[in-house]
Amino acid sequence: MSAPRLEIDLDKIQHNARSLVGRLAGVGIAVTGVTKATLGSPAVAAAMVRGGVRGLGESRIENIEALRRGGVEVPTTLIRSPMVSQAARVVAGATASMGTELDAIGALSEAARARGLVHRILLMVELGDLREGILPGDLEPFVRRVLRLPGIALQGIGTNLACHSGVVPGHANMTELSDLATSIEADCGVRLEVVSGGNSANLAWALGAGDKGRVNDLRLGEAILLGRETLQREPVQGLLTDAFILVAEVIESKLKPSRAWGEIAQAAFGDLTLAPDRGELVRTILAVGRQDTDAAGLTPPIGIEILGASSDHLILGTGRRRLAVGSEVRFQVNYSALLRGMTSPFVAKVMRKRAAVVPA
């Protein structure tokens, strides 16, 4: 089988989705499954849908188009603010999109009118993380202008936390979001169908004690794919953390000094470090590198350590044990390693469902 490859267990993804959907339904929150880390994989999306997500979230229209070509027909939201240059593609492919700029929403309005469509908008509110969002004080006049745009239907409001600045979702900012939804409905005479509280970082708040207010949607990617919340990267109880495994092949395994010799300058990626002298160790090289994944996001088997990576090589320390050339090493991945691995054309994707291999 080709290497490097990501082995993807669709049953485990479905299990994680079903578990989260069921637990959050108990507090009145639906799940939008986010597939962006898998490059719009129809197989992964279908596993999430089988697990009960009410719709999908994607950050790029190209991935939404791939989902449509792959036969995925559930409602799909573009969760990155749309580019004006892609307005026609967005209204043609996405059910809804998240917006923060009137110029972009205006372009969507024109594109929707030209095609006789109605495009749904979820307005994103800035609540402190300083990525995308309309400031709370600007939201009411912004909503009034959006409501006047033909071809646009206001679906609701949402926010995003913990992605850029690490701001923790909790009672205060979720209450503020709920209060904004209520005030917008009262002041503007609209009904907001969706109040989207955020992402996998919201799980501790959502599954903890206390009223959830108006929040009725979370956009979950990492929790479904990797079974972890994103504030501390701790496993979520009842979820599986090994749905994705990166497998790479050994191309060299030799006993060598542990410390480099000669004059030392920057390495290929600007590193300027000199390892301590630990005597002779077996250094094993795998045919995978930074062009394929994030080496810092790999968890090797017990007894193996990652010593470094260049563009095309991952260097392991295997103690005194030589690994056979042509053998394989398996790694668990974090979100960064998964994202790069799914994006790399040099990493094969092998989907498995009930012991059967299915098309990627």
UniProtKB/TrEMBL annotation:
One of its GO terms (cellular component) is cytosol. One of its GO terms (molecular function) is pyridoxal phosphate binding. Its cofactor is pyridoxal 5'-phosphate. SUPFAM superfamilies: PLP-binding barrel. InterPro entries: Ala_racemase, Ala_racemase_N, PLP-binding_barrel. Residues 8-224 form the Alanine racemase N-terminal domain. CDD domains: PLPDE_III_AR_like_1. Keywords: Isomerase, Pyridoxal phosphate. Coiled coil: none annotated. This is Alanine racemase. It comes from Engelhardtia mirabilis.
